[in-house]
Protein 1
Amino acid sequence: MRRITLITTGGTIEKTYDEQSGELSNRHSLVRRMLGELRLQETEVNVHELMSKDSLHMDEGDRDRVVAAVRVAGAVEQTPDSGTGVVILHGTDTLEQTGERLQRDLGEQLAMPVVLTGAWRPFEMKRSDALQNLTEALFATGVLPPGVYSVAHGRALRFPGVIKDRDLKTFVRAPIHPRR
């Protein structure tokens, strides 16, 4: 039995449409609805609703909370109750900052994979990439070695050096610039 801790922070993946205001916003977590659409054999997902924010509104205090939640999930000091991995639902606009922070603060200490994922289109919209990315992130916890990763659109990229490419609408490796 695989056991995964899923930490929700909000972001586009969980935004809902308010018919009265016409706005997309983070009001509450949709992850349980998303999980209800998946068939997860021999997999237990424990959801921790940490916050419900657009990642553009996240600050270093929020990232402190994410780092602490990953520690509590047992990703550093693994115990028999720790599980096999951590997935973090996160807004794509600042996912790279949170990934870099996790790598800096916990990277060498991790005993399991910590996977960040999000979506370019909310779960509730047509042609959303939310379920694909969530499914890939959950799967990735069972096949990746310990470390911090961005998983989306069929790729797993290890931090450091992951950035959002707004033109491609996915995450990519940061270009390496030669020293002069």
Protein 2
Amino acid sequence: MTGRRSILQVLLAGLLLPLKAIAASWNTPAFEARTIDGAKQVLNMRAEENTAQIEIVAPDFAENGAVVQVEVMSRIAGTEAMAIFAEKNPVPLVANFTFSHGAQPYVITRIKMAESQSLQVVVKVGERYYQASRYVTVSEGGCG
């Protein structure tokens, strides 16, 4: 019995180590920022350029802000990361994605929106940042 327990403990420890690494990479201060500028500062984002190469698919009108589907695709070669912001939400950084080399910079997610507002997407490519936005009208807010 002791041998089996030891093996099981080693296996579990091996499985939990990657989870600890993921948790360590979580950028808690960026998600705790109360403004977009505060979150961007924590994420070291600088001087975004507007571009049409970021496609944001979201409804023009969302009846319920608690569940708004957002689809984002970056057509900028070398996209490394993508952040989605909703300025009027209590926590403006809604999502932050990092892409491995060769991964397609495309995400579909559901977000909460406190009220009608522009969604802003910022993409990181090397040392440069690009942005696009889309306005979504919300009839019933989803953040409380």
